[in-house]
Amino acid sequence: MKTLKLPFTIMLMLMAFGAVASADVMDYALNVFGNANLDETIDENDIEYLSAVINGSENTTRLADANQDGEVNQDDIEQIKQIMQGTEDKISVLDALNRTVTIKRPVERVISLRLAISEAMVAMGAEDKVVGVASDTAEQRILFPVLSQLPSVGRSSLSNADTEKIISLKPDLVLVNEYENIEQIKKLEAAGIVVVSSECHGNLLNLISATKRLGYIFGTVDKAKEYTNWYGSYLEKISSRVEGLSEDEMPTIFYYWNWGDENGPLGTSGQDCAVSPLISFVGGKDIASEMAGEYIEVDPEWVMEQNPSLVVRELIYKEMGYDVDNSTIATEKVKGFMNREGFGNIDAVKNGNVHAIAVNILSDNSWIGTVYLAKMIHPELFQDLDPIAVHQEYLTRFLNLDFDVRKQGVFVYPLPDDW
Questions:
Q1: Are the CB atoms for 130 and 173 separated by under 8 Å?
Q2: Between β-strands 100-104 and 194-197, what pairing exists: parallel, antiparallel or unpaired?
Q3: Per-residue DSSP letters for 45-87?
Q4: How confident is the model at residue 28, as a pLDDT?
């Protein structure tokens, strides 16, 4: 199977929009020890590179010590061969918290503490290894007909999860997101449980790398590659088409939600929010992208002053998503924004460019949301891109769901006429 190597245009865009921390090659590498040449896979090229390191013609790299014994030698080449064959008895990875973690193989009992991780595991064919999930997965019965029936260990962070329940399920591995508390991880490790932090938000290249890393951990490498190659092709299309846009061609976007009074302050994405880079990636300008913080509140007067050309409101479960079959709440929320005092003068309101989008496809699975956003923000550039068809293929081909996106669920409202 040919491995997708995302073009340098995507890397440049992610760097320019602040979606990547630095230009270091590690930002784009498969973070599995044995990936000696720091590309996106482990293959014969790593053996060739490691041989050059051993004979002194190449410099060692951070991932060259495949068996993590402190030396780079022939034993590491043997480890790489075993990884390629899927016969290794352990594998070491660099996780999202920059921790070196060694996992015994095969992994048979996994607890997923994040919906995005659960979704990736189903997509790569590792669903049968899951023995427990967090409440965000357990509550999504349509999206996860099998996983939602498993024991729930509480909220989707170790600080809010039931540690005793986790330990009682005797997992080989617990998967958490990239914002997890190190001290909470150490508590599980003290109980003899391996914990790996996996990227779930924001940086689209990191999400691809994270999924491939899980593929190596679970022995589902080919399926993980098939999945990431498939959706990566859409990211490549988006990147190549918006790459040359001028500032004037990039519409201003206000992405928001409300946690309290519908007529009060508006929640939005600061510069540390994962959604802001996604808006930039698809050729939009998030009006709050330079504000410090991750989740912040802004005054309605400020929104009117910024005069965004498009507004996107994210709605949570039970408001939009897989288990909602009518747009009643979405209609109410969109109209509520448009009817706020003074908002009739905002360009987005005047032009009917106020939309709601489900958290399922923007925060939980951001690559799907990215496809929808691209079409929404630049319909003229993406006339041949059908987000609904992409979404449908994902659910049918990778999640094995009997679910018709055009007839079930509510993911974008109002849906543009030409979609």
A1: no
A2: unpaired
A3: HHHHHHHHHHTTSS---TT--TT-SS--SHHHHHHHHHHHHT-
A4: 64
- Give the pLDDT confidence of 85-122 residue by residue, as tens digits: 999 999 999 999 999 999 999 999 999 999 999 999 99
Nearest-10 crossing angle of helices 221-242, 204-218: 170
Return the amino acid letter for 341.
E
N-terminal to C-terminal alpha carbon distance within the chain: 32
Tens of pLDDT, residue by residue over 336-384, are 999 999 999 999 999 999 999 999 998 888 999 999 999 999 999 999 9
Distance CA 68, CA 103 (A): 12
Kindly list the distances between the CA atom of residue 307 and the CA atoms of 60, 256, 301, 304, 379, in Å, as whole numbers in the listed order: 52, 14, 10, 5, 20
User: Is 314 in a helix, a strand, or coil?
Assistant: strand
Tens digit of each residue's pLDDT (9 = 90 or more) over 146-173: 999 999 999 989 999 999 999 999 999 9
Closest CA to 16 of 247, 295, 249, 303: 247
Q: Cis (ω within 30 of 0) for the bond into 106?
A: yes
Identity of the amino acid at 190: A
Secondary structure string (H, E, C) spanning 333-358:
HHHHHHCCCCHHHCHHHHCCCEEEEE
